[in-house]
Amino acid sequence: MWRNIAMLPAACLLAGTVLAQMPAAQDASVDSAVEKLRAGRAREALALAESTVKADPQSAIVHAVYGLSLLDCGEFRRAQAEFGRAIEIDAECPEAHIGLGELDCGRRRFAEGLAHLQRGQRSAILKLRSGMSLSRCLDWLNRRGEARAVLMETLEQAEQIPDYIRTRIQDQLTLFKAYGDAPLFRVDESFESTSVPFRNSRGHVLVEATLNGTETVELHLDIGNTGSVVISDSLAKKLALEIVGEHRGRNVESEHTAQVAVLDSLGLGSMTMHAVPVSILPASQFVGGAAGNLGNAVLQRLNISIDYPDSRVHLFGFDRTDLQRQFVASAASGGEVPFWGSKLILVEATINGLQPAPLVLDSGAGAVVLDRAYFQENLQTTATPGDDADAPKAQPFMIKTFGIGDAEFTDIFSVVMDLSALYEYARVYYPGILGNNIFQQSRLHVDFKDSLLTVDSGED
Predict the structure, then answer these.
(1) What domain range includes position 296?
(2) Residue 434 within any structural domain of the chain
(3) Phi, psi at residue 453, to the nearest 5°?
(4) What is the pTM of this model?
């Protein structure tokens, strides 16, 4: 890695030369698309990149930027094809390697992702994105000293860093230093599987967890939460946790700043995970009386199956997908559906027979949520109060048919909301959220090791 970083100035000069050699119109289009990506406006970037790639199908950087725009719109399979085309034209195209690295990390293939992201460090136009993605990959590999060095270099070399991104990076640097080099999220290698009951609180899955071996509480199982564990300030005080830093985040309604500490242990059934970072927020932030949320930074270290009719969550060791597959009622399943989960868990679904759209899998949502713009463009056939600027924040809508793989559901309740604030924060566009109400009569199997989602009725 350090050899690649040492070569950065010459590589940047080379990339700049490549840009300079492009036709002026193409250069401007690529720059405009990149600016949209930096601003978290992925759909606008995609429109620009799509027209540019049609005008110049032999440019590696054009295909790479098109692929990154697709990726930021959740179109991960189409994005991979574009990165492949870019590599065919120029095997060293750094922007294509950034995209391939992000894809690999989103499928938990971190060694492969690391190799691509290191090559992506040579990008002259996406230094901020490259550095943040590389640092995130190193963090997952528990190589935080290197991750911290990459972020520090990114702050020094990247241009046009928005203030909130700069603050986020500085917060992360503080946390990396506080965490030290000891591995986080350690699961006993002997762990194979366990099962825990859950309480269904208006469509929210609440499971019992034991914190630091002493406090047993209910946590809201929240796959849509990109963080680790979030607990209430009162519980943190009871556990006498030491604050090591801050973390900024956002939900549908607002931004928030949370204090961060580290749990010695997190117990779920017979599974114990050690050295688990926790964010601390006021108790009013949590649903159904839960003491906190259990996010996907924990869950992606396992494989999980949620049996909604039986009100049980089954956890499997990360390498024990064989045990999870034995639990799937194959005759009643909708087949295995790939997903991508670098930040959010995105899976393609079909609404009312439209083209498949990448939606966020979110066990923290009690109902399906549709983005208002997507709804108005694709599903709304007559004018409604939702067209008015003064319309209510949420608008109900009944989905006639909803498909995931070969599994189909009918008459699904959804809520239409403006999700644009979330896009700009996460820098990923998605037309909606898959809530728990879809799966109430099913079992949902999330295989994080192979990035596959399976839905079955539970009946062999």
Answers:
(1) 186-317
(2) yes
(3) -115, 135
(4) 0.89
